[in-house]
Amino acid sequence: MGIDYNHINDNSLKNQTFYFAGTNAWQIWIKPPNCKWVNFFLVGGGAGGQGGQTGAASTRSGGNGGGSAAFAYITVPSFALPGQLYLQVGRGGFFGESGGTPQGGSGGLSYVCTIPDTTSPYNILMKSGTAAAGVLGVSATAGTVITAADILLADIAFISAYAGQAGGTGGSSSTPATNVTPSGIPFTGGAGGAGCSSVGTLGASASIVGILGFPTISGGTNTAVQSATAGFGNNGYATRENFVGPNFKTPMYFTGGAGGGAASQTQGIGGKGGNGMFGCGGGGGGAGGNTTAGIGGIGGDGFIMITVS
């Protein structure tokens, strides 16, 4: 006679994190037995940073940083959920090309669905936001927050949802790019890249400002040397590379990438923007000379964490 082990808790099923697995890829979550509440934490992908502008004896701007994604925390009674759900995790946006056109790519939304299909709202149980970071081609745009209408079981769920943070503006002419100050959410936009005036005056790249003991993520240095490459913006900071560790010593916190430095000479090369961490925006690229500016940083992928009690 078989033995029923359903009364025994399996800790590996109590806390599961799902990462980006490919464009339009679906992952399956199976509801564990005997749970009473299910908590979903959905984060979308951050936007990619815009590339810097190029030009000879002209004003060229640094790229805008990518916006961070919206995110949502939703608690639902277990009895209201089906036994199996389908998850799609949003991808971080692509970097913006040298020359500033096009903008950095938009991040993707993250979804929890009853069947593997997001084309009908009736299939979507919940999602990370209503619009992705970097929507409408503007990489600095933050992801927008969900409302109760975006959650199928809103009337019996506990919901906490937040918009993302816009990326920093790239430097225009010799005006410094805009630093990004964390706003109290654990994800930031990317910082802007440095610009250069028509007479070769360089503006500073932008950084992610350090707060509460977390470090400043510095932008790249400028260069006035012919054929030299300006400094790259630093990649974002993360207190989690994954969510497996049992005893994290610091709170969950991620940042976007810093902006790239600019080059003043005709053959100078702009610095690349730093890549964003989970849900965060990529940094903007720095302005370059005649032909080559810095590309933007890549936006951080989203994730979905599911815990049960």
Task: State which percent range the strand residues make up.
Answer: 5-15%
What is the number of strand segments? Answer: 9
Structural class: mainly beta
Distance between the termini: 30 Å
Overall pLDDT confidence? 91
Query: Count the helices. How many?
Result: 0
Q: In what order do the strands lie side by side in the largest sheet?
A: 1-9-3-4-8
Shape: elongated
Q: Which stretches of 5+ consecutive residues score pLDDT under 50?
A: 1-9
Question: Biggest β-sheet, characterized?
Answer: 5 strands, antiparallel
Q: Over all CA atoms, what is the radius of gyration?
A: 21 Å
Write the H/E string, N to C: EEEEEEEEE
Range of helix content: under 10%
